[in-house]
């Protein structure tokens, strides 16, 4: 991970900007022999839904450093990027009353080191061979397509 993490925007400024322009996120599709790693959201948006760990790319942060930062912040692990899987366009945001338009770059990753420890945004971690019904809808579509291709 990089030495200096870029400064985050204050929430009011974040909301003002990302209510007008798309936000770029990184999504970690962590595949283990037991299944895909998902975390259960403990905050809004998407409270009570399973999702892949992810987060926004910060200003002047490289994609590789964002992957490392997100893995550390969300799970306290280090990951190895296996390959780029594609993008997830979050069309459900507006339907759910969430501001903005987000696009996530999804990377297939494997756990390199560390023991999973969740942050305040998730209450549980699970490994799934079959995607749960209560998975964030845009990610669910992406993951079902990914699993179909993997067979």
**Structural class by sheet pairing and helices:** alpha+beta
How many helices? The count is 4
The CATH topology is what? Nucleoside Triphosphate Pyrophosphohydrolase
Count structural domains.
Answer: 1
How much of the residues is beta strand, in percent? 35-45%
Compute the average pLDDT.
89
CATH-derived architecture:
Alpha-Beta Complex
Spans of 5+ residues with little confidence (pLDDT < 50)?
none
- CATH domain class: Alpha Beta
What proportion of the residues is helical, as a percent range? 25-40%
Beta strands, count: 7
Compute the separation of the termini in Å.
Answer: 33 Å
Which superfamily, in CATH terms, is the homologous superfamily? Nucleoside Triphosphate Pyrophosphohydrolase
User: Describe the biggest sheet?
Assistant: 7 strands, mixed
* Element order: H for helix, E for strand: HEEEEHEHEEH
Shape, per Cα inertia axes: globular
What's the Cα radius of gyration? 15 Å
